[in-house]
Write a structure and sequence with these properties.
single chain; alpha/beta; Oxidized Rhodanese, domain 1; 12 strands; globular
């Protein structure tokens, strides 16, 4: 029996035409623009909210601000876009007109970059009816689908009964203490995949954020997130990314893990360790979700180390965490 059909759970990844068809249905999904820009030093800064307001955007979408719908302050070492509390998440969902039963479709303006983090957040809070718009806004435009350019309208907020406070699937979020303990777990060590560029993983390139050591978590494996994405040529020559096909994802991830047991080890760990077979990390917890999405396409659940290298590298710079470096 098809699980998606039986449980009324939509596919995790949907193409533009599929989303457009849903928008014409009697129960259209809630559309979220979850764009976030890294704005690395030297690059021209972009403001995701300003771009959303100016348009164009996917019709009926509202802006999900990953830096505001997040836990902030000293309790999370002032790190950005950390997982929101359950109450904060539920309140944000209601403000965006999202009920517990709603189908939510998430996109970003780079193709596949920041949107997977919001898809992950919904899933981690047990919201099953959430999908990624594959290729994001550029793919939507390339398909010639309608765009919204007028000032966006605010969604109609829902009352508390529409989205009760959910429970976070704690196995999907990894803490510093768990990651530290994993290093010394020997044969029981869980695989850790690092989504940052290979040179940053190796420690041969500086980190883009000040006060953060270079290198990687000891025992982790490098799998830069662009490896699981395919590049497409968009309007006027602009490039954007989409998820690779399932068979390609299998080959890429299995090859990256060749010295660590391959995908078979992830599947074994997933069946033996709280149904989460791998921990994922990146610079700030954003692009680790791209790897999470790729693994989901292969039926493997992963947990994200929410602090990621911003937290670990800052601790390492203060002598509080070990660091490994390697040749690329």
């Amino acid at each position: 029996m098809n699980l998606h059909r039986a449980a009324n759970i939509p596919p995790l990844v949907l193409g533009p035409q599929a989303v457009a068809k849903l928008l014409r249905s009697e129960a259209p999904p809630r559309i979220l623009d979850a764009t976030w820009f890294l704005n690395a030093p030297g690059a021209t800064p972009r403001n995701a909210l300003d771009e959303f307001r100016r348009g164009p955007r996917v019709p009926t979408s509202s802006f999900w601000d990953v830096d505001q719908i997040a836990t902030r302050g000293e309790s999370v070492r002032n790190l950005p876009h950390m997982m929101p509390s359950a109450a904060q998440f539920a309140e944000a969902a209601r403000k965006h007109g999202i009920a517990r039963s709603s189908h939510v479709v998430v996109y970003d303006r780079l193709g596949v970059f920041s949107a997977p983090r919001t898809v992950f957040t919904f899933r981690a809070f047990g919201h099953p009816r959430v999908s990624l718009l594959d290729g994001g806004l550029p793919a939507w435009e390339e398909a010639g689908l309608p765009l919204e350019t007028a000032p966006p309208s605010e969604p109609q907020p829902l009352d508390a009964s529409a989205y009760p406070t959910p429970e976070l699937s704690s196995a999907w979020i990894r803490s510093f203490d768990e990651m530290l303990a994993n290093i010394g777990a020997g044969m029981r060590r869980q695989t850790v995949l690092d989504a940052r560029p290979a040179a940053r993983f190796a420690g041969t390139a500086p980190e883009p954020r000040p006060g953060v050591a270079s290198g990687h978590i000891p025992g982790s494996v490098s799998l830069p997130f662009p490896a699981v994405l395919a590049e497409r040529g968009g309007t006027a020559g602009a490039k954007y990314t989409v998820m690779r096909e399932q068979h390609e994802l299998w080959q890429i991830i299995d090859r990256a893990l060749a010295d660590a047991g391959g995908i078979d080890k992830l599947r074994h760990d997933a069946s033996a360790k709280d149904a989460v077979g791998v921990s994922l990390t990146c610079g700030s917890g954003m692009t680790a979700a791209v790897l999470w999405l790729a693994l989901q396409q292969l039926g493997i659940d992963g947990g994200i180390y929410d602090e990621s290298w911003m937290g670990w590298g800052a601790r390492a710079a203060n002598g509080e965490a070990p660091v490994a470096k390697s040749a690329e």
